[in-house]
Design goal:
- It is a single chain.
- The chain is of the alpha/beta class.
- Strands 3-2-1-4-5-6 form a 6-stranded parallel β-sheet, sandwiched between helices.
- It is globular and about 45 Å long.
- It has 8 helices and 6 strands; from the N terminus they run βαβαβααβααββαα.
- α2 (60-71) links the parallel β2 (41-46) and β3 (77-79).
């Protein structure tokens, strides 16, 4: 994948998550974000030490490897390992500050799911996050919504948080990383929930085999 650094990047997407494991809903969101937000580039960032998670994540190097496999064919997407390599808790605001310095003059678009948007007031330095980036929220379960890019409805975002918001419209994709881990632990096939290379990686490295 080509180097995306440089003055040509004016609209930069930032998409973080545990990616434990990355699945088709993740890559569908990435592709929709690039298209609907007209991004020049999208940074995909597996989280390092997730202060907000109530469970232990799979090892960072496994999640990084799976994320690289999952996103390798997503146009304009580049997996960025900085949060995994950063010492201490992972805070989105630190990543946004770094990217703002690396891409001077670029507009940052922070891409997330609706579940994350509803808890934004708990995020570290959320006021600074909304100053640095436009918050872009995926809507997966509203087929009646126009395909055109537009403002996020107030009920989709934590009402305490003020900022510039956009919506990304996606088809309904009900599966989640939790479902996939449960399937593996119970010996079920992953079917078409993850890409073939990620499914093989999970099998070869015996991930998620205990509940």
């Amino acid at each position: 994948m080509s180097d995306m650094n440089g003055p040509a990047v004016k609209r930069l997407g930032v998409y973080g998550g545990a990616f434990d494991p990355p699945h088709h809903a993740h890559t569908e969101l990435a592709q929709a974000a690039v298209a609907q937000l007209q991004l020049d580039a999208l940074r995909v960032l597996p989280t390092g030490q997730a202060w907000h998670k109530d469970r232990n994540l799979t090892g960072a190097e496994h999640r990084l490897a799976m994320t690289r496999l999952a996103f390798q064919n997503v146009p304009k997407a580049q997996v960025d390992a900085r949060e995994i390599r950063r010492a201490g808790p992972t805070y989105t605001v630190d990543t946004l500050r770094e990217l703002a310095q690396e891409y001077p003059g670029a507009q940052l678009f922070l891409v997330m799911g609706a579940d994350q948007a509803k808890s934004l007031s708990t995020w570290h330095e959320i006021g600074e996050i909304t100053r640095l980036a436009i918050i872009c929220v995926a809507e997966r379960d509203a087929p009646e919504i126009s395909k055109a890019q537009g403002q996020v409805h107030s009920q989709d975002v934590d009402p305490v948080v003020q900022g510039d918001f956009r919506k990304i419209v996606l088809p309904l994709m009900p599966h989640s990383a939790t479902d996939i881990r449960t399937r593996v632990a119970s010996g079920q096939h992953l079917n078409a929930l993850v890409c073939e290379t990620v499914a093989r990686y999970i099998q070869d490295n015996h991930l998620y085999q205990t509940a």
